[in-house]
Write a structure and sequence with these properties.
Blueprint: H1 2-27, H2 48-77, H3 85-105, H4 107-117
């Protein structure tokens, strides 16, 4: 039972972090372009405008995706509450893999939105 709770908490980390960091990114965009924190791609770091746009767009996206992923993560774990540790581990691995794929895939719509909104030199279209 303790293993289930531990794995359950671990699987909720990605959706909770996406909700939290997403909100921070779109409400409190880092003031200066930096190489430590934030949505850092070549296109997003062209200038302050692209930097702000990328954070607001990706932040809102992460916030929404995090909220959406939270519910299925909880629902997938409930049937395995009294399951054996091997089954719980397999389910947790599958859930976390899907979450990571969704997290990484969120880069693509953000980059597409940047490309639609800005020219290659970073000026707005």
């Amino acid at each position: 039972m303790w293993f289930w709770w531990f794995i359950f908490a671990c699987d909720l980390l990605i959706p909770i972090m996406m909700i939290g960091f997403g909100r921070i990114m779109y409400k409190h965009t880092p003031k200066n372009i930096n190489y430590i924190f934030g949505y850092r791609t070549t296109r997003s770091m062209k200038n302050e405008d692209t930097w702000r746009f990328a954070h607001e767009y990706c932040g809102r996206l992460w916030w929404k995706i995090g909220l959406i992923m939270f519910v299925p993560t909880v629902l997938v774990h409930i049937p395995f509450y009294n399951g054996n540790e091997d089954t719980i581990g397999i389910v947790a691995t599958i859930v976390m893999t899907v979450q990571l794929i969704v997290l990484i895939a969120s880069i693509f719509p953000t980059e597409i939105a940047l490309k639609k909104t800005f020219n290659d030199d970073g000026t707005r279209k």
